[in-house]
Amino acid sequence: MENNTQEPSEIHATSASPMRLTRRAFVITAAGACGAMALWSVHRSSFATVEANANNASPGPVTIVQFSANGKKSGKVTVPRTIKSDAEWKQLLSPISFEVTRHAGTERAFTGNTWNLHERGLYRCICCDTALFSSDTKFESGTGWPSFWEPIAPENIVETRDISFGMDRTGVSCRDCNAHLGHVFNDGPRPTGLRYCMNSAAMHFVKLA
Fold first, then answer.
1. What confidence category does residue 19 fall into, taking pLDDT thresholds of 50, 70 and 90?
2. Catalytic residue of the set 127, 128, 174, 197
3. Which of 8, 53, 160, 174 is buried most, with the most CB atoms less than 10 Å from its CB?
């Protein structure tokens, strides 16, 4: 570790003039300030990554897989992307669902209404009703969030890199409305070895007909 004590030759002060930094000390100080600003900028931009992904979707049509009330796949359809303003979403969603889906928030563990649900059915997007997960792939992860080892159809979700909060994770969002759902990790059970750790507030549960 370097000794951070400055040598007297780098800073000069006299009783007749204020303290002055030498050229070397000024460069060191400026470099440190620039480094701090760069670090702050990286943190700030990475913090906004997920929120940007959750709100700035392209307006073009999307292709998703539809599922009937009895959980059967009914085929692919191409539909206009569901896009609303924040004001419109606030009228449709609860405060926690709005914060999670539209601003990439995270509900507190063990507080959602489906993390410990064991009934058979489909988990659909709270914003656009797209089918996301099935109870057939749900498992007890012990995390306090509903967890699944695969989505009901890979076409219905989007996975993006999330480097917010100094972590490198894979965010998961709805392909139709781009609602933030949660994250996927590589510590799940067989057969996929994946854990889709979702927010209850981002989905609503529908029992199989």
1. very low
2. 197
3. 174
